[in-house]
Design a protein that fits this description.
By secondary structure, the chain is of the alpha+beta class. Helices cover 30% and strands 36% of the residues. It folds into two domains: 1-20 and 120-219, Translation Initiation Factor IF3; 21-118, Alpha-Beta Plaits.
Length: 219
């Protein structure tokens, strides 16, 4: 089928979006093996981290045990078996971040793995951007059509593409760097964490719309 006469309008929008929430992922070396959520209270090293977290206004339900790995040289598992616990500390108030990091780095058995930044609801934001870009594409196509002396008849084809820097970039902390930070914290020296206490990503929409137009008439 022969393609109708069309005008193509392309628009894009790109903005930096600041994180408003963060998850802290921590690994703790424990001297005993306790499975399930009971480990949050009964594993000594884990409890030693959670107690001060509660004091800096972290809610108990926002501390999650994500995995437990047993470590035994004899091959026999029991309560005396050492274990590695991985925790996620989830909170929505970034003003608490410095206090929480201070608690984590002060624990000699805890290792800060990485920060998982979270952002405002993308669905609402993307819907607003899409509507804005559609309106802009229509106005742009209308201006082109008017300049060419033709009328817009409808949409022939439409394509949108979203680009998100978080899809290819993941904030992380280098183990060597974190070890140095923790050592300084234990000696009560001023420390430089080596990473910012805030984070942002960029979000972009690329939109292309092809509009059918009337035939160009001369004379």
């Amino acid at each position: 089928m022969e393609k109708p006469d069309t005008i193509t309008a392309t628009v894009s929008r790109r903005e930096e979006i600041g994180a408003d929430k963060v998850d802290i992922h921590v690994t703790i070396k424990g001297s005993s093996l306790i499975t399930g959520n009971a480990a949050l209270k009964k594993a000594r090293e884990v409890s030693q981290l959670i107690s001060p977290l509660l004091e800096v206004k972290i809610k108990e339900e926002d501390i999650t045990l994500t995995s437990v790995r047993a470590e035994s040289s004899s091959g026999i598992l029991g309560k005396s078996t050492s274990a590695t616990y991985q925790l996620r500390i989830k909170f929505n108030d970034l003003e608490l971040l410095a206090d929480v990091l201070g608690v984590v780095t002060a624990q000699k058995n805890a290792k800060l793995d990485y920060l998982g930044w979270r952002y405002p609801d993308d669905k609402k934001l993307k819907g607003e951007w899409l509507q804005s870009c559609l309106s802009e594409a229509k106005v742009k196509a209308g201006a082109i059509a008017a300049g060419l002396g033709v009328r817009l008849l409808g949409v022939h084809a439409f394509c949108e593409k979203w680009l998100d820097s978080e899809q290819t970039e993941r904030p992380y902390l280098n183990e060597v760097r974190v070890g140095a930070v923790m050592a300084k914290a234990m000696r009560a020296q001023p420390i430089d964490l080596g990473f910012p206490l805030s984070h942002s990503k960029w979000l972009e929409i690329q939109l292309e719309a092809q509009f059918r137009v009337s035939e160009f008439k001369t004379g």
